[in-house]
Amino acid sequence: MDRSSLADFLRRRREALQPADVGLSVGPRRRATGLRREEVAHLTGMSVDYYARLEQARSPQPSVQMLRALARTLRLSDDETDHLHRLAGHAAPDRTGSSPYVRPVLLRVIDQLEDCAAFVVSDLGVVLAQNRLSKLLQGDRGGLTGVEASMTWRWFAHPESRPAPVEDQPEQSRIRAADLRATWSRRPHDADVTAMIDALMATGDEFAEIWARHEVGLRHPTSKRLVHPRVGLLEVDCETMATAEVGQTLVILGAAPGTETYGKLQLLHVLGEQPLGEPAPAATK
């Protein structure tokens, strides 16, 4: 492990990124060049102290999982990700895996889709980027690492928090397991895929029973129903599109103007992050 070079590389990559590159707003008093250390730490899911020690060349060797999270936060290219792993004393990752890098143009596209919830998800169910409405609708998925970062794992590990009506959940469970089966078929020896399957097997009988059916890549519905704690039931149109990066999918959830669901999505925009029970902010002209 080359601690000095690793520290210098992380600092330079952090300073080269602008807040807008990772979906952060710029305050009027901001003077820092690039991202702040605490912003990188939050987006990566590590403590500020640990990240500071990485940049100060006095940290223990970071894990492969932590390096992948850092590569995603810092928007590293494949070559930069390989370099990061080697500096930290690990082998470069297998290129059959899913890239954590979301192209800047795609980040701009999802941010411009203000009337829709848009996000980029990996083939293991990890949200790599999401716009504001996606965060309001599904929660902010940044800052999580390991299997806990996967929406697929959360679906089976915490069924009480599923954002779908009970009657729709069996079909959604089949689709998620079938998607993972397709990922396993593409990269059966990948450590992340193996870890995900092992973790899901430990969640209970539901996943194990569905996994044993050996279903692969079931067709995704063009519409789905979601239950949100603030606005209730939503019936959204669902569009999924492959991206330029292998193992990534752009997902767009929306509704036609004039429908009840469209009105509820607009209401979420107005409510923002304010606690339930507080009055909505007054409209501005």
UniProtKB/TrEMBL annotation:
<protein>
    <submittedName>
        <fullName>Helix-turn-helix domain-containing protein</fullName>
    </submittedName>
</protein>
<dbReference type="InterPro" id="IPR001387">
    <property type="entry name" value="Cro/C1-type_HTH"/>
</dbReference>
<dbReference type="Pfam" id="PF13560">
    <property type="entry name" value="HTH_31"/>
</dbReference>
<dbReference type="Pfam" id="PF17765">
    <property type="entry name" value="MLTR_LBD"/>
</dbReference>
<dbReference type="InterPro" id="IPR010982">
    <property type="entry name" value="Lambda_DNA-bd_dom_sf"/>
</dbReference>
<dbReference type="GO" id="GO:0003677">
    <property type="term" value="F:DNA binding"/>
</dbReference>
<feature type="domain" description="HTH cro/C1-type">
    <location>
        <begin position="30"/>
        <end position="81"/>
    </location>
</feature>
<dbReference type="InterPro" id="IPR041413">
    <property type="entry name" value="MLTR_LBD"/>
</dbReference>
